[in-house]
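Case study 2.
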Amino acid sequence: MGRSMSKRVSGAALSYLLIFVKLVVTLFFTPILVSSLGVDGYGLYALVGALAAYLYILDFGMNDSVMRFFVAHENDTVERDVFLAKMLGLYSLVGALILLGAYAMSLMAEPVFGASNTPEQVEMLSTMILITGIGAAFLVALNPLGALLSATESFIFLRSMEIAATVLSALVMVVVLRAGGGAVQIVMVSTASVITQAVLRLVYAAFVLDARVRIGLPDRKTLTRVARYAAPIFVVMIAETLFWKLDSILIGAVLGAAPVAVYAIGVTFNKYFMSFATALSRVMTPEIIRQIDRGADATMLTDLMIRISRFQAMFLLVILSGLAIFGQRFLVLWLGPEFAPAYWVMLAVLVPYTLELSGNARNIILQVKGLYWQRSAITMVMALLNIPLTLALLQIWGVVGAAISTGIAVFVGYVLIALLLKLRVGMEIGRYWLETARGILPLAVVVTALGLWAERYLPGGWDALLLGGLVHLTVFGLAIYWLAASPDERVFIDRFLRRFRGGKV
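Prediction:
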């Protein structure tokens, strides 16, 4: 097996390990956070996260464009270092812009959220926005280094660092909470973690990759080339931020901090879903770019999409099925009966989002094919239509209505982008859907239906929940492996699992 493929398998295995670690940390840390901060305090903390997303999009979508340049010039270190210097200069200016944006947001906290929150809550929110802005500015200023590490497939370092940072940050936060700290101090710890990781990427690039790290100024030609590739990605980033973060802001402005907490818990698993799906497509991104640059036709791209999407679907449907069966029982045991409505928030969003995520490798194809503007337009239109629909359903069904609105918009957008791939790239969308779902979707439906029936007979408590979850995972996993996966897919799964056990591929 080639060294490059071995790195990708290791990177994918570590990516999934990172997701597992983050999930475990969330499961153990969130109850501590909610009990220490209270429902309102946790709602404010979640609201800051939603607002911070609007600072991070000031990256303007350039990171993927920068990574594509590094992939194209992976054998020319001189050209690479010149481009890196230009991008570091440009991104430093963006970092300064983020600081200004954070300051403006902090000033807007009282006019926007003052009517539904107390003055003390508004002041706390303003302070947390400023602290988060500092971390966002620092991270974005050094983003070109992260793009360089991804382009050179330094996935083992990246994922190992993120795993360590996740565990250490959670431990420090627990200590801070036990010492009487609040939401502001938790945001300070999170910001310190972000800055530390950015510095470590710089050190790795300079001393391991032998990159010459310096700051320059980009010329007009370089700016034009980056902007042409990045502009549609930026539009999509705005649209997706509207999709996933505006709901919390609207809920906070209309209903207050406590409902934000319920909604935030309901969509907590979104990021893990996205992480599971993108872990594989992310490590395959350089290879997808190379295939397209070598002239892969529509049939080859369809085959590539099917191969990636089937692995994504296997993981996602196992998780979605488990959440559908045990989700409400878990939420009540985990955080209390006041969070039971979060179950319906979760399902309303995750069911359509599973379709979107199981095919997210298509985004790389659209970027490289120069069709990302069309995808951007579709996503932006759906995001804008989602705003009035969310406000309307928010009045009828509360936070669940907001989730239903977002789920509808995600599904319609997914179908329209699939039509774009068929009409402009020539991909065989019908074959893609059939081949991706073959064996996997029928199993998911049967196992979930049986699980919902059996769940009614489980006794209460954590022991029964854990036993039921383990049985579900075992049955579904074995059924997927033996009944749905092809021989080649079983080989990949075997290699993937051996990586977790420390074996050789």
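Residues 1-258 form one domain.
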